[in-house]
Amino acid sequence: MSTYGTAKWQGGIRNGKGAISTKSGALGDYPYGFASRFEGKPGTNPEELIGAAHAGCFTMALSLILGEAGFTAERMETKADVTLVKQDDGYAITAVHLSLTGKVPGATPAKFEELAGKAKIGCPVSKLLKAEITLDVTLEN
After folding, report:
1. Is the pTM of this model over 0.70?
2. Separation between Cα atoms, residue 53 and residue 138, nearest integer Å
3. How far is CA 135 from the centre of its chain?
4. How far is the CA of 77 from the CAs of 7, 29, 101, 102, 108, in angstroms?
5. How many Cβ atoms are within 10 Å of 37's Cβ, its own excluded?
């Protein structure tokens, strides 16, 4: 399997404007720039997209792992908080914190946490990142 995303950019770092697209069309020339990355202005940024990708990858991997253990999630929701830090040599993503809430009939909180830990380590996006990855798990009744 192979896919791609693209980015366009015009101008300098502070006043320039960019657009991000995906092969699927989920994003089509979606705006991004300095203001959306560092000043909270409208538009997206690479860290937000990495967070969405990590949350999606982790949750899908957990679905597979749950199935292999004989469980099916009624519902799962994951938030991936991505930390970008200024360092001496520029910026770096230093951490991702995954917050998972799920409803999985028949699973105990301990089992759900154990299986989620396996998904955290095993999902392809986790394997890609050099950042510290932490996880909080909540199993709802």
Report:
1. yes
2. 21
3. 12
4. 28, 27, 5, 6, 17
5. 19
Distance (Å, rounded) from C-alpha 37 to C-alpha 51? 13
pLDDT values of the chain reduced to their tens digit, one per residue, 141 residues = 899 999 999 999 999 999 999 999 999 999 999 999 999 899 999 999 999 999 999 999 999 999 999 999 999 999 999 999 999 999 999 999 999 999 999 999 999 999 999 999 999 999 999 999 999 999 998
For 72, the token pair is 């099916």
Instruction: Specify the residue for token string 């394997």.
Output: 127
pLDDT digits (tens, 9 = 90+) for 9-20: 999 999 999 999
Cβ-contact 103, 62 below 8 angstroms: no
Sign of the Cα pseudo-torsion (22, 120, 135, 107, in order): positive
